Amino acid sequence: MRDFRALACSLGSFALLTAGCSSDAETGFPEHPPKISITALSAEVPERDIALGDARLALASLEFVPCDPHSAKLGTTDFRINLLVYPPSSLTLDSFVADYCRIEADLAPPTAEVPTVHFVGTRADGTPFELTSTQTLKLDLDAVPAGHPFDPTKLVLGADPATWLEGVDLEAAELTDDTVLIDADHNAELLDAFEAATVSALSLYVDANDDGLLTAAELAPVAETTVR
């Protein structure tokens, strides 16, 4: 179920943003609405000298699930995210529901031309690589402890490139025109390793100071990620 009530104060194509609204009393918007940002934890994998120049993620849907089973989900669809921008891409909902116990994130390519995940970067020796995944996966991120709501106003869906690329041996990959291509037709076994790590690579955090950056103290997941 999409919630379009925030469009009067929206910015951007996908995020429903309430910036510029003076107060909830004047506009009907909650003072501290549910908000989730989506970002990469880093643009590098320092221990392997891997650098990312571009990282994209496509979500078929992203939804907040209230703890109350009788309350409706709220969210958006066709959410295409640049994981390396700052401030990060985000979704803010016009909802006065305060208790949420799950985030549902469905990964899927939105079109035949747009993949689910697209990484462009360089490996340790400077050789460029490009990874293209059309993986389809439905993820549930459930609050821990179970049934205890997380703070829905400062959530971050963090993508960890180090975890995603942990089983991807870029140095052993075959080259195509001096580039490491990883997709369904090139180095397919490396793509399999990448996709197998998706569940571990995506975690939910709370950005306590709401600055769009996760510090070491904020890198404690507040949810358990499982496949639906």
In short:
By secondary structure, the protein is mostly beta strands.
Describe this structure in words.
By secondary structure, the chain is mainly beta. The protein has one domain (5-227). The chain has four helices and 14 strands. The chain has helices spanning 24-27, 161-164, 188-196, 198-201; strands at residues 35-40, 44-45, 50-66, 74-82, 89-92, 100-107, 117-122, 128-133, 137-143, 155-159, 175-176, 179-182, 202-206, 223-227. A hairpin with a 2-residue loop joins strand 11 (175-176) and strand 12 (179-182). The two termini are 18 Å apart.
Keywords:
4-stranded mixed beta sheet; mainly beta; disordered N terminus; 4 helices; 228 residues; single chain; 14 strands
What oligomeric state do the depicted chains represent? Answer: single chain
Q: What is the count of structural domains?
A: 1
Low-confidence stretches: 1-27
Indicate the overall shape.
elongated
- Helices, by number, come to 4
Structural class: mainly beta
Largest sheet: 10 strands, mixed
Task: Give the overall pLDDT as a whole number.
Answer: 88
Secondary structure: elements and pairs:
Elements: H1 24-27, E1 35-40, E2 44-45, E3 50-66, E4 74-82, E5 89-92, E6 100-107, E7 117-122, E8 128-133, E9 137-143, E10 155-159, H2 161-164, E11 175-176, E12 179-182, H3 188-196, H4 198-201, E13 202-206, E14 223-227
Parallel strand pairs: 1-10, 8-12
Antiparallel strand pairs: 1-5, 2-3, 3-4, 3-6, 3-7, 6-9, 7-8, 9-14, 10-13, 11-12
